[in-house]
Design a protein that fits this description.
The chain is α+β, with helices and mostly antiparallel strands and 743 residues long. Among the domains are: 268 residues, no CATH class; 176 residues. Helix content is 36%, strand content 19%. Strand 2 and strand 3 form a beta hairpin. The termini are far apart.
Length: 743
Amino acid sequence: MNVRTAAFLLRLLPRPGTAADTVARAADAGDPVAVRAFAGAAGSARETLWRAWLARSARGPRRWASALLDGPPPAPGVLVDAAWTDWLDEHDDRLRSLLDAWDRAATDADARVASLSRLARGDDASVAAPVLAGAAARFDHPIGDLARARLLARPDPDAVDALCEEATGSPDLTAFCVAHHLAPSGPVERAAFFVRTGQHEQHRALDGDGALLAAAYRAAPPEIRAELRTIMAGEGDSDLIRVVVTGDRRDRIAEMSDTELTYLRNQLAERRQWADLRGLARDLPLAKAAETARLLPADERTGDEADLLAVLADLPWRELRDTVRRLPPDHLTTYGAPRNSMAVSISPDSAELAVSTPEKRAVPTTPAAPTAIHVETVRIGTGESTSRFTGTTESGFPNPVLHAGDEILLSRRRNHRWHADRVFPGPHAFDSPAGMSPHMRRVSRGAVMIHLDGLAFADPGADRLRLESFHSFRKMMGGKAVALDSRCQLTTLPAERLIAFCDLDNQIFVMSEDGAAIRRIPADHYNAADWSINALSFLGPTTLAMHGHQRIGLELAQHTEIWELPPDGDPHRTAEHDGIVRDRWPIEEWEGTSIDPFFAHQVLTFGLLTPHFDGIDPAIPWLQASQEKTRFRRFLAMPVAGDMLVTAVGKMEHGTLEVHSRFLPTARALLERPLLHSGPQDIQRARELRSKIGDPAVRDALALLESCLAARFGGDIALGAPGPIPAGGPTDIALGTNRPGMG
């Protein structure tokens, strides 16, 4: 469209569009027809042209140098509003001259621009407090001088408060406030303002005991707290530091962050405020109290709590801290979005879950069609999830995973057979032998699996599997390659370096990790030789449990035996039972006990299909109430100590990961409680918990808590004679040759 046509159309129909844009662009380029159109436009046509010009010109002082603006006033309101907006963003003499010539304030601009334009013109109209304070904080623009003058002439408390909030980040504004004695109206805010702006004499005059600053500190966000701590450390007033950080109430220590606590105790130690440091150590939770007590010189662990301080100073505070942090905070915790066909392994220290999840196939073209598989870790204490591996597998069912501490291993199906991979740290695919079982067990160093010619060991950091021909399954099958997926069971006792497995003829072998054969139980020695063995489990270094099943018609019969393996005699059976395990050995006898995951499945479930598909009996007392509608829970894992139960709600597809724990969250709460809030009764609570928990580190932590509470309360309690850890309660299971309930 040419300029003449566009100008003609605008006279007929003055509205935004192509015609207005054409004339505005041409006028900016100096086209005489377009310039005359601008000069002659009136009413709505004039406003339309100026809107088009503003829309195509860049904001800032440069556009106001256009010759189009040299025309006589009055300027349209849209032009005046845009000019004030640009001037308030960036001062320019030419632009200010235009505004003075137009002699108008902004009318239809936003409230900030409108009110500041009136202030700039010298009008006496009021300006909102936040707007006035924001303008007064500017030292790069004439509006700042005008706003500060207005604020001093007519001090508005709200505007002063807002200005003081801005002042702490601006040396110029701080100097202005100090010079004119401006400070927030509230006493708490004023105390913090004086400290943050270096007006320490004014603060001391206002807040002699530090109570106002303490209140400000407690209400401040973390970055302001850090700033106040830095300032107070520079001033070196330890009394003020103590009052501000802990407040005037001792029980506020429970609210202190780790950063605040570290700051406070370091300040007290540097200034040799031993009495305050003793009081702090006496009141904190166990691990923090132990860390604090170590800052006291030995000759300063004195007073009524001398015994307590001596005990605390000797505690391994880092180990205590790490133990407490890894415990589940709640009796039932769910993690993340629902997952498909999960397999789970718990780290040796019970701090982390390793979870493998194959993606659900849409419509697989073949049974072995590859699908993606993911491995992640989940911190039990915090719920933090970290992706560790993504690859492919031919199995959409659970792909076994093993958390070995520093390494994570995954069995996944490739090329129609199972392979072992190290997926953390860094992926590494082992050259796996044919016919290998996917099921892995921990040994003292690394992991072990069954393969056709014996055992395969994944040693830490090794590039290849270490194959040991302890027993040939291939020979048993006349040299044929057979799949050992679920036909041969394996279990280990890493602390004793023991391995047990059964072969295709149901013979059971028990040996040490170095290959020394310790015991063999021939199939005809036990009463289920023609049954299928589902699970083996060490119950101690000389005790082995076996569970098998046999299909009789449409029924599935179960059989369990307990065998003793004395070092100086022949293996012999000490107990057996036909039927569900819990009918002979109640569930309470297994809680807090280390048992093989496959054997745990037989103990906990009410069916008997495979170690993957059956649901846990809903009557199991370890299970915590869930908001899920379904009561079907699939067993996934138990830690070495047996204090937790990991399940999936729902069947194979899209289960929600759950961690159940009856006693560990209670132990965590007790260990995290400030000693200040403890009483003599907590000694008995810690002792009772210790008898119900199998995790040695947690038991040790509770024992240390008992000792500290005993030292704290002295004669207020009767502890009884010192001795070994109390005998197991009704939820413990004995593991020696004299096994209550196993005979």
